[in-house]
Amino acid sequence: MPILPPNPVLFKTPTPEETAREGHLAADLHVHTNHSDSFTRVRDLLRSAARQGVGCAVTDHNQVNGAVEACLAASGVPVIPGIEVSADDGPHLLLYFSVLSDLTDFYRRHIERKKRDGPCLAIKMTTTEILDAREGYHCIAAEAHPCGYVFLNRGMQEGIARGCIESGTIARLDALEVISGGMARVHNLSATDLARTHGLGLTGGTDSHLLRDFGGVVTCAEAENVEEFLEKIVRRKSVVIGQERNLAEKAMMGVAVLPHHLPYTLPILKGCVCQRLLRRYGGR
Length: 284
Description:
The chain is α/β, with parallel strands linked by helices. The chain is built from ten helices and ten strands.
C-alpha cells in the first residue's frame, strides 16, 4: 500500500494511520501563538503536537518570536520555521524556511523595519517585494487562504484581476494553501483548482488561534526532515488532509482573536480603506 493516498487533497479528519507512518512527516502549517493574535502558548502547542504525533509551523503575523521559541524548545516534534507576512497589496504569504537562522535573518533584514503600528497589519512591502526579498534563502512561499477573507484580503488572483499585482506574480509562488481551517469549503475547492491550474504545490493548515483547533488540517509528505519535507511540497509530492471549522468554532475563534485587535481598530480601518483603494485604482 502506498504511503500517500492517490488524491492529494482529502476533506476529512486526519487519522494517526495517515499522519504517523515511518518515513512520513505530517504538520499543521498555519498556526498562531500568543506572540501574535492568539492565547496559545508555545509550550502547550508543542505538547499537543507531541500527543497527536504531528509537526507544526508557527506562522505568526509579521513576527518570528513564536517560531524561534518553538524551534528552540521542540523535543521530538518537527517544527518548520515560518512566518505569515501580510503584503501591502493584499495577499498573506506563508514563508517556510529549512533552518531557523534563515528565518530570523530574513525577518531582521526585510520585515521588521517595514511593519506598521498594528502588529497584524499589512507591512510596507508589496507581494513582489516580499518575494524578491526571500530570494537567496532556502525558503518556500505559499499564499494563505488565497480565495477567502473577502472583506480583509482578496488574495493574489483578485489583485491580478484588478491590476494592482502583476500577472506573473502567482507563478513565483511555490504552493497554495488548499485547505485552510478558517475557510468555507467553496473557498478551499477554488484554491485547489487554482493550484492545479498554475502547477503549484499544495499546503494546508488550520490557521488556528485556539489550541483546540490545532492538527485539524495537516500537510503530509514522505520525508525524514524539514528540508526534505519542503522540497516535496515544491515538487508537488505532498498530500493535504483536513476539514474546515464549523460556524460555531469559527465564532469561538473570532471572539478569542478580537481582544488582540481592538487596540488597533483605527489603524486596521485605515489599512482596509487603503487596500481597497489600491485594489480599485492600482499602483501604490
